[in-house]
Amino acid sequence: MKALSVPHALILVCFLLPAVCFAQEATLMFENGETLVGEVLECTENSVKFRYHSEGKDVVGTFKVEDLDPYSFYTIRKQHVGNDGTAHLNLAKFGLQHDMFLVAIFHYNEAKKLDPAMVEKFDKEEKPALLENTAAKILARAKKAVERGKLLDAESDTSVILTHFPQTKAAPPITATTSTSPSSDRSAPSCSQAPLVDSNTGVDN
């Protein structure tokens, strides 16, 4: 029998072992803390199509982004988008809208390096409303926490607004009794790293 050449041998191995050559195992985490281990078939900005094993069978399901843990979705989504300015800016928006401020900062700055003209347009046309809406959402969450008697959660959300959204309408006036300790913030350490801010200057663009 004629020996297989190296390229043919590699093709045969990939044919016999597709899971090794093509499938990449991933873990999908849901908002309720449950997880699924399987393979991502498709990931759009709104959902993940996922193959997993259940009760001895392969099952394919499509899960909406709102049902998933935001960081779990982000880790999958970033592997299924390009590396251009638009991809980074969309990931920055997602990070901002889901309290992942360091994620937002990183991708915003990457987008700015790759496509400064696009980011300049975004800064003028979209960013102010996006920051206001996100801050308002966090403020509403803080108010609900107060109503439930969860004062530490309310203080944490207030600190997030003061740290990341100091120029928005949701930001309370800073007084001597207002806590601004970064330790109560869940994501970022300083005002110089506010979301969608150039981290090199600390100045909102």
**Proportion in β-strands:** 15-25%
Q: Can you tell me the residue ranges where pLDDT is under 50 for at least 5 consecutive residues?
A: 4-22, 175-193, 199-205
Share of helical residues: 40-55%
Tally of helical segments: 8
| Number of DSSP-assigned strands | 6
Q: Going across the major beta sheet, what is the strand order?
A: 1-2-3-4
N/C terminus separation = 69 Å
The structural domain count equals: 2
Cα Rg: 22 Å
H/E series, N to C? Answer: HHEEEEHHHHHHEE
Major sheet: size, sense and barrel closure?
4 strands, antiparallel
The helix/strand class is: alpha+beta
Overall spatial form: flat
Question: What key phrases describe this protein's structure?
Answer:
2 domains; 8 helices; two-stranded antiparallel sheet; 17% strand; 205 residues; flat; alpha+beta
What does this structure look like?
With about 200 residues, the chain is an alpha+beta fold. It folds into 2 domains: about 1-80, SH3 type barrels; about 85-200, no CATH class. The protein is built from 8 helices and 6 strands, in the order H-H-E-E-E-E-H-H-H-H-H-H-E-E. The protein has a 4-stranded antiparallel beta sheet with strand order 1-2-3-4, with helices on one face. A two-stranded antiparallel sheet has the order 5-6. Strand 2 and strand 3 (about 45-55) form a beta hairpin. Helix 5 (about 100-115) crosses helix 6 (about 115-125) and helix 7 packs antiparallel against helix 8. The radius of gyration is 22 Å and the shape is flat. The termini are far apart. The model is unreliable at about 5-20, about 175-195 and about 200-205 (pLDDT under 50).
